[in-house]
Structure prediction request, 317 residues.
Amino acid sequence: MEKTGGISKQLAALSCVKLNKKIIIACDLFLPLKLYHLPAGFVNNLSRHQPMVEIHEVNTPEKPSLSKISSDAQIYFGNRITRELIQKLPELEWIHFGSIGVDRAICPEVADRAIKVSNSRGTMEDYVATHALSMILAFTRGLQHSFHIQQKGQLNRPEFDSYFDHCGSLEGKNILIVGFGEIGERLGKMVQSLGMNLSIVKRKATGINLRNENTFKLEDLKKAVKGKDFVINLLPETGLTRKLYNQNIFSAMEKNSFFISLGRGGTVDEADLALALEREEIAGAGLDVFENEPLPNDSKLLALKNVILTPHVAGLG
Prediction:
């Protein structure tokens, strides 16, 4: 995301654009969390530089219903749009997501009405790659195990000794990145610079600027995970990827390997993952995304000591 100076310049440039009609933007970025809250200064500056553009709060707990004016919106900006809401916006021409994923816009109404869809690509790739690297480093040095014995009041070397065989360095470790877009490429450069051996899963082996990577197709995932110390999931959820990571894949992974998921929660069969972790078929898992969010309190994943969980915050920054 651009710094304030860059945004101010863009807003100033807007004042030179002469609009012959009012533009209504329906926006759901008015939630309490900083990640989902449009700064008031931005809204005020936009109104000052381009009075023909109006931003209206919609689809929030405070304003769940559309007003007469917001129902005429030509643009939707945010993350919470639904198929039902699209049906109630007859003038809608463009949906822009404050996130990278555009899953919510994959529906017949968008295709039939040729509604333009865009995302905020380029605003959070570094953060997600850094989050993945943080989990890789934590598992490499057993930080999750230290936290567990700390919680038990047994923070000492004898208690940590059971993790001895997993404690090492990144040099020479084998990592597979599944879903090799901009986040994957950034993470790939990070891990290669730390001496890891990189393999990737990508639909098309084009536009890759990394050295010595091994490339697999998605249908060869079971083969690709063999021999890997880390498997990183960055896949979107589609008909092909839903619950792609299941017992079939986990059983093919190495017993000393770690699974890290920062793509979409629906790509992972959480029951199969929990079972694989309980049986120690894999060494551990780091998850930032889940099929149901927030993660239900009765999820087995919460009770497992070989798991690192974060509440879908990898894109924060």
The chain has eleven helices and twelve strands. The radius of gyration is 22 Å. Residues 125-141 form the longest helix (17 residues).
